[in-house]
Design brief:
GO terms for molecular function: glycosyltransferase activity. This protein is of the alpha/beta class. Helix content is 28%, strand content 13%. The chain is globular.
Length: 446
């Protein structure tokens, strides 16, 4: 695929940026005037109005049924009283995602899927960030709001966000909410990549850079779609990492159902490719999202305990979605379809370069705050919550292509300079910093 990039010096890019900002400003005005552009894309006046109903004219359920019948094979249950049905991908089925509703008249888009407890404290920041994009139609936003909605006012929200129908969640288990978000995103045929985020995420790249990165790698195994992007643990099975929480998780080794008419999808219990704790913040391509959503599975299943095996404690949300995909595809196929197509052997591909490129959300666990600033553990087994970020480090991060996002950042987090002086709030300075220091991709041919 032909791509033109403009990697300029910081000084030159500052000038180009100014020009780009002017162009963006004109574009933004156009989009403010016309809603969010693409015909047929719903424009939410408020969160409450915005859930998209499954209508007879376009039933995503029917689309998913067809996908399941055409692409998946039910595994034979080992526990016949289990209400869940795991599937694997038919050997002969083409990697084609569910179609969605209507036609896509705009550019391919990235759907941000926010898991929200009761509000989006950084909503204004995300809105400003999205407005920096050269084409606002490149991004859609979906929210699953766990509580606080209903008859009362919607929570502080993102303009244009679509609120998905609320499903049951519990502490550490948002599997059903993730499914509901992916499913809502699949309705829009423009959505090609779906990125799970939380309300403590901040973007640390220009949106045009994020877009380019997310669409960068395409492989024939996914029908030319961009590859999903998953952050894997570096530690080998059963090795403990020196950093708390950074180790592998062995929970996903236990297969759900062991008998299947197709042997090709029975190798998911293999010991390669572990999920990194706290890294459900994956970017799913449309095909992989279809495989997961068409099954609608959740955890626990078959009476398996919440916390299994060795390794650090892990919540189902952290590993289950990926487990379902691996079960369905098998390891042989999954490595060819994620992270740029890691080929057949992930064991030696989990090197620093791969992790840097595909761990899109930076999360820090170590007491030194990974050089990003100051923070403390906000829960016993959780990563750091940052109270203050190092301005120099943040600027460096913004200038580079990776990572794209950073967490956990509360709304009152500040920035400090080289003299240790507080220079302002992240919420006030992040967008100007991205404007000044990112090197946007001015032309992307997708
Ligand atoms: C089988 O599944 C049922 C329903 O989920 C569960 O209650 C039971 O414990 C499971 N049995 C085994 C042996 O896992
Ligand atoms: C994967 O690669 C590692 C390191 O190169 C090697 O030791 C191992 O045998 C390979 N595994 C397979 C299944 O090819
Ligand atoms: C901030 O980060 C930069 C770049 O990593 C580092 O060189 C510097 O020492 C840090 N400054 C402070 C005050 O921690
Ligand atoms: C961004 O650049 C402008 C122009 O050089 C400067 O005035 C402003 O202070 C910069 N903002 C930040 C947050 O670096």
């Amino acid at each position: 695929m032909e791509r033109s990039r403009l990697a300029a010096s910081p000084l030159l890019s500052a000038h180009l940026l100014f020009a780009a900002v002017c162009v963006i400003a004109i574009f933004s005005l156009t989009f403010i005037a016309t809603g969010f552009g693409s015909a047929g894309r719903p424009r939410a006046a408020s969160l409450i109005d915005s859930a998209i109903p499954d209508t007879a004219a376009c039933s995503l359920e029917a689309d998913l049924d067809r996908f399941r019948e055409g692409n998946l094979l039910p595994l034979i249950k080992t526990n016949t009283s289990s209400s869940q049905q795991f599937h694997c991908v038919r050997a002969s089925s083409p990697p084609v995602a569910v179609r969605g509703c209507g036609d896509c008249s705009g550019p391919p888009s990235v759907a941000f899927l926010f898991l929200v407890k009761n509000n989006v404290p950084l909503a204004a920041l995300w809105e400003e960030w999205l407005a920096l994009s050269m084409d606002r139609r490149r991004f859609t936003v979906y929210l699953h709001i766990q509580e606080g909605t209903g008859a009362s006012e919607p929570p502080s929200s993102l303009r244009g966000a679509i609120s998905v129908e609320r499903v049951k969640t519990s502490y550490g288990n948002f599997v059903l909410a993730e499914n509901a978000l992916l499913k809502a995103a699949l309705r829009d045929p423009c959505n090609q990549m779906m990125v799970l985020v939380t309300v403590s995420h901040i973007p640390v790249s220009h949106p045009d850079v994020a877009y380019d990165v997310l669409f960068q790698h395409r492989v024939p195994e996914t029908g030319g779609q961009p590859t999903s992007r998953f952050c894997y643990a570096k530690a080998k099975p059963f090795e403990r990492s020196t950093h708390k929480g950074m180790g592998n998780m062995d929970l996903d080794r236990t297969p759900a159902d062991t008998a299947s008419p197709s042997p090709s999808c029975q190798d998911a219990e293999s010991t390669i490719g572990y999920d990194l704790k706290h890294h459900q913040w994956r970017a799913w391509n449309r095909y992989h999202a279809s495989i997961v959503v068409a099954q609608g599975l959740t955890y626990p299943y078959d009476g398996l305990p919440w916390n299994r095996g060795h390794g650090p404690y892990a919540d189902p949300s952290e590993w289950f979605g990926h487990h379902v995909l691996r079960r369905a595809l098998g390891n042989g196929a999954v490595w060819k379809q994620v992270n740029g197509g890691l080929q057949t052997n992930h064991t030696d591909r989990c090197d620093d370069k791969i992790l840097t490129e595909f761990c899109d959300t930076k999360t820090c666990w170590s007491a030194d705050a990974c050089g990003y600033g100051m923070g403390r553990s906000c829960s016993p087994s959780g990563p750091l919550c940052f109270s203050s970020l190092n301005l120099t480090k943040l600027t460096e991060t913004i200038s580079s292509r990776h990572p794209l996002f950073f967490r956990k950042v509360p709304p009152d987090a500040t920035l400090f300079d080289e003299g240790g002086r507080e220079v302002g709030r992240v919420t006030d300075l992040l967008i100007p910093l991205i404007r000044n220091y990112s090197r946007p991709v001015l032309v992307t041919s997708i």
